[in-house]
Design brief:
By secondary structure, this protein is of the alpha/beta class. The chain contains 19 helices and 15 strands. This is Threonine synthase.
């Protein structure tokens, strides 16, 4: 398996190289050169397998000869052995056709754990026996940071620098990052929004003074290995609801498009998906792009769903590349135009390619709260605000005889005030993180400039040997 950049000018890499690099050197994102496919019989054979063994079957084609099947199985069992539910990502029924896929049973109570617990082990595996030191730089709108930090804290050969927008993540989200005091963990609060933090990360990857001194890598969903791991739970859920003999739909609360792109990959691999519903909040760049081809950046509005307060969705480039004929030069020009003008139009091929599989919904704060109340009063389930965005979008769909699964992306106790306002119920943190508010915090606050953040990284990272 070889990996190519969406912008066509970076070296072709194997799975190990793409995982350690994260972002391609030409500013693009790595994708497999071809999509592996599973037959109907191979998908049906997933029924009854554990989550870890399902993960091995789905991910093995992507790793090529960089890992043996036994090595991959060992990593998967180690990664998912830390989850508090034996099913790892259990399904919960809400009514006759609405389901939740609970993705928050990992160490930091968010769906990012599903991928990042594995990614941390992959980093360690690929660095073992080398003298290379990895410097991870990431940006988070809430959950990626804590999941990535938990996955690599204290690991040999890795330093992590995580940027979060000051005042724009929940207190639980912030504390899950800033109370990890391992010497290789560095938290940076920047005076700006998530899009600014993400742009700074991309700029640092392209800054020679940093890129030539440190072996930079990414844990955001720009890293292909993260998306690969997320593909698994689409298969795991679908086969438990009748797949591949029966199609299943998914509603995905999304900001950066990574989680829903994993569903697109599952579809390309042969999983019968009736529809992927892209559920956005009022920061609706993806909804506008999918409904009328208008991918234009607006001002970020701060909401009760901070992980979705995004106006630049990095992973959307992967979809545009695949739907646009995999023309790296054309994709690079399209993204350069967006970077310059803050706006672009999807091509006819891109719009038509997306129309068959994707739907989208824009959900405002009132509809989010109504979805939270409905889940609580009618199904006895408490959901977090992000999941409620997905649930509100799912309940607008008309898909006769097709079960629709909303991805439940975070534990409701991570957003306790918003949940209580909507439902009157105040969720509590699980016992394993119950002392979170008693732990010491450590982080720095910096202006959102390359000079400030780049200098901090350079001063605290350890150069690659």
């Amino acid at each position: 398996m070889r990996y190519v950049s969406t912008r066509g000018a970076a070296p072709v890499l194997d799975f190990r190289g793409a995982t350690l690099a994260g972002l391609a050197s030409d500013g693009g994102l790595y994708v497999p050169e071809t999509w592996p496919t599973l037959s109907t019989d191979e998908i049906a054979a997933l029924a009854g397998l554990s989550y870890a063994d399902t993960a091995v079957r789905i991910m093995l084609p992507f790793v090529g000869d960089c890992l043996t099947e036994d090595e991959l199985r060992g990593l998967c069992h180690a990664a998912y052995g830390r989850f508090s539910h034996v099913a790892v990502t259990p399904l919960v029924q809400l009514d006759h056709d609405q389901w939740l896929l609970e993705l928050f049973h990992g160490p930091t109570l968010a769906f990012k754990d599903v991928a990042l617990q594995l990614l941390g082990l992959l980093f360690e595996r690929f660095l073992t026996g080398t003298d290379k030191r990895l410097t991870i730089i990431g940006a988070t709108s809430g959950d990626t940071g804590s999941a990535a930090i938990d996955a690599v804290a204290g690991r040999e050969g890795v330093d992590i620098f995580m940027l979060h927008p000051v005042g724009r993540v929940s207190e639980v989200q912030r504390r899950q990052m800033t109370t990890v005091l391992a010497p290789n963990v560095h938290n940076i609060a920047i005076e700006g929004d998530f899009d600014t933090a993400q742009a700074l990360v991309k700029t640092m990857f392209a800054t020679p003074a940093l890129a030539d001194t440190f072996a930079l890598s990414a844990v955001n969903s720009i890293n292909w290995a993260r998306l690969m791991a997320q593909v698994v739970y689409y298969f795991y859920a679908a086969v438990r609801l009748g797949g591949p003999g029966k199609p299943v739909a998914f509603s995905v609360p999304t900001g950066n498009f990574g989680d829903v792109f994993a569903g697109y990959v599952a579809s390309r691999m042969g999983l019968p998906i009736a529809k992927l519903v892209v559920a956005t909040n009022v920061n609706d760049i993806l909804h506008r792009a999918l409904t009328n081809g208008d991918y234009s950046r607006g001002l970020v509005e701060q909401t009760a769903t901070p992980s979705m307060d995004i106006q630049v969705s990095s992973n959307f480039e992967r979809l545009l590349f695949d739907l646009g004929g995999r023309d790296g030069k054309a994709q690079a020009a399209q993204m350069a135009g967006f970077d310059a003008d803050g706006a672009m139009r999807l091509t006819n091929a891109q719009q038509q390619g997306a129309a068959g599989l994707f739907g989208s919904e824009r959900v405002d704060g009132d509809d989010m709260a109504m979805a939270m109340r409905w889940a609580h009063e009618k199904a006895g389930e408490i959901v977090d605000p992000h999941t409620a965005i997905g649930l509100a979008a799912a309940r607008r769909q008309s898909l006769p005889d097709v079960p629709i699964v909303t991805l439940a992306t975070a534990h409701p106790a991570k957003f306790v005030d918003a949940v209580e306002r909507a439902t009157g119920a105040r969720p509590t943190l699980p016992a394993r993180v119950g002392d979170l508010f008693e732990r010491e915090e450590r982080y720095v606050t910096l202006p959102a400039t390359l000079a400030a953040v780049g200098d901090y990284v350079a001063a605290h990272a350890r150069p690659s040997r």
